[in-house]
Design a protein that fits this description.
Layout: H1 13-22, H2 34-47, E1 52-56, H3 59-70, E2 75-80, H4 84-87, H5 92-97, E3 101-105, H6 114-122, E4 133-140, H7 151-163, E5 167-172, H8 175-182, H9 186-189, E6 197-201, E7 211-215, H10 224-230, H11 239-249, H12 253-274, E8 287-293, H13 294-302, E9 308-309, E10 317-323, H14 330-346
Parallel strand pairs: 2-3, 2-4, 4-5, 5-6
Antiparallel strand pairs: 1-7, 6-7, 8-10, 9-10
Length: 347
């Protein structure tokens, strides 16, 4: 009953096979190999346009380097107050941008609205030399609380950013989960809706280490190769990272894996609701948030369940996060929900 994170799951066999196949023989270094070309071609077809793709080691690096490309050091990057770049990246966005200030906004659910961004812009007027200037907006899809932005949501935010002369960044660590829920195309959820740069991650979906910065306008990627190199994220054996992207996209493996994770989360949420604990947010991707008595959480842990406290365990109850992966089984979900019902009766 491991619901701690989708990072705890292993690597899908088809991805491992692709890595092994890339190891057969020799290949040029630093991204000029056939696998990197295949990755770029596959992503171009996936997004229905030519894209500039730059693999990096981690999602945090993708976010920080992408923001550094679109936000000058004296600017503000508007994001949700519970976003990964605000809470979980140890100041990397500020470091790589050279000092750009994150401007947190938003209410519970980790999903920004156009009105919230307009209000944030009003607090950072242009031309006042004493204040940081509006630079970019960053949204996460699916959000850190498991909600999704549909194409209309993204387009509404993009309208605001475009009118303000800002660039729009999307953190897509769980982009596959959002797509699997919505059933739309990658193009509809990104550049067609107004996204300028995407941090695309397949690691949480079932890869080993597949993160990249994707630019939909190649002119925006000018000199990014040097920024990535200077940041220490140009791999000599790039083919092993590129092979994972191709494996995920070709044959729609990403859809199968993200769909399985989402389905497991839906079942977990329904089981929790049947036990008397309705999810705190709608279950739209592969994360479930439950407000549980701390005593019930302790009983679940005693039974072997693993999960993460989203708020401090300082009172009688706490908001807990449960994450499903492609490897989460029906038996795990059933065992958890049965134990939850038992613990609820005993509490």
């Amino acid at each position: 009953m491991n619901f701690a994170s989708d990072n705890t799951a292993g690597v899908h066999p088809r991805v491992l096979a692709a890595i092994a196949a890339a190891s057969d023989g020799v290949a040029p270094s630093y991204g000029v190999d056939p696998w990197s070309a295949r990755m770029t071609e596959a992503l171009g077809a996936w997004f229905e346009r030519e894209v500039a793709v730059f693999p990096v080691a981690t999602g945090g690096a993708a976010n920080a380097l992408a923001l550094a490309q679109i936000a000058p050091p004296w600017s503000a990057v508007f994001c949700h107050r519970e976003s990964h770049i605000q809470v979980d990246e140890c100041g990397a966005p500020e470091f790589y941008t050279g000092g750009a200030k994150l401007a947190p906004l938003g209410r519970p659910g980790c999903k920004l609205t156009p009105d919230e961004i307009v209000a944030g812009l009003a607090e950072h007027p242009r031309g006042v030399v004493h204040r940081v200037q509006p630079g970019a907006v960053s949204i996460t899809n699916a959000t850190e609380c498991g909600l999704v932005y549909d194409p209309a949501d993204v387009a509404g935010i993009a309208d605001v950013t475009r009118d303000a002369g800002l660039k729009l960044h999307m953190d897509g660590a769980r982009f596959a989960n959002a797509l699997a829920t919505l059933g739309c195309t990658p193009a509809d959820l990104t550049w067609r809706a107004g996204v300028d740069v995407l941090s695309l991650g397949f690691t949480k979906t079932g890869a080993l280490a597949a993160e990249a910065v994707v630019f939909f306008d190649k002119t925006l990627a000018a000199d990014f190769a040097y920024r990535r190199k200077r940041g220490g994220h140009l791999f000599s054996k790039s083919r092993f990272f590129a092979a994972q992207f191709a494996a995920m996209i070709e044959g729609d493996l990403w859809r199968d894996l993200a769909g399985a994770a989402n389905a497991a989360a839906t079942a977990l949420g329904e089981g929790a609701a049947a036990a008397g604990f309705a999810p705190a947010f709608p279950v739209q991707a592969n994360e479930v948030f439950l407000d549980l008595p701390v005593s019930v959480a302790a009983s679940l842990r005693d039974a072997g369940a693993q999960f993460f406290p989203w708020t401090p365990e300082t009172g009688e109850s706490c908001l807990y996060r449960f994450v499903c992966s492609f490897a989460t089984t029906r038996e795990e979900v059933e065992a958890f929900t049965n134990r939850l019902k038992l613990s609820a009766r005993r509490s």
